Amino acid sequence: MEIKKTDIDGVLIVEPTVYGDARGYFFESFNEREFLSKTGMQVHFVQDNESRSCYGVVRGLHFQRPPYAQSKLVRVVVGEVLDVAVDIRKGSPTYGHYVAVRLSAESHRQFFLPQGMAHGFSVLSDVAVFQYKCDQFYEPSAEDAIAWDDPQLHIDWQVPHDKVILSEKDKHHTCLKDFVSPFNF
Q: Which domains does the chain have, with CATH numbers?
């Protein structure tokens, strides 16, 4: 696996080594020992999630508050998305900055987000199946989010605004300027 750093400390692009032949392909989607060896970060995943969405769906920008904060390793197994990590750690030199990366079933690229990131994605293909590993269990009482369309962030979701499909909950989140972060850098 190849690990690429991004402009936000701890946010990584993970390129697995894919072995292909006439039968298809094989790759390790995660190896805890190799990840620790290449990043120096110890992460132990305890929950896997999967969502299926159609074109134009925007999910995010979600996170869980401490002590239930989650690191995530995300990937797409069908279709293509634009995946976004926003740094919401007080004291971070990149607080309020984001990194966006295209993830697709064809590329097998993955995105690692440490705790302290708000996370979201937009679906760019007709359908996308999105999988993610979490190092902390889902806790409904710790669920929180930043507005997907926060004007301070200026995220280009690569979906026309009139084609965006949101959950009712994702229509009403706080903007960064009104947010009090529970995370420290």
A: 2-184 (2.60.120.10)
Q: Does pTM surpass 0.90?
A: yes
Give the C-alpha separation, 112 to 67, whole Å.
19
Residues with active-site annotation: 62, 132
pLDDT digits (tens, 9 = 90+) for 78-125: 999 999 999 999 999 999 999 999 999 999 999 999 999 999 999 999
**Which residues fall within 8 angstroms of residue 65, CB to CB, at 6 or more apart?**
142, 144, 182
pLDDT in tens, 25-35: 999 999 999 99
Hey, what are 178's tokens? 């009104």
- For 56, counting Cβ atoms within 10 Å of its Cβ (0-12 exposed, 13-18 middle, 19+ buried), the class is middle
Max CA separation in the chain (angstroms)? 54
Strand 47-54 relative to strand 19-21, pairing: unpaired
Cβ contact 74:97 at 8 Å: no
User: How high does pLDDT run on average in the chain?
Assistant: 97
Percentage of the chain modeled with pLDDT above 90: 99
Dist CA 133 CA 49 (whole Å): 6
Three-point CA angle 171, 175, 180, nearest 5°: 125
- Does residue 162 contact residue 149 with C-beta atoms inside 8 Å? no
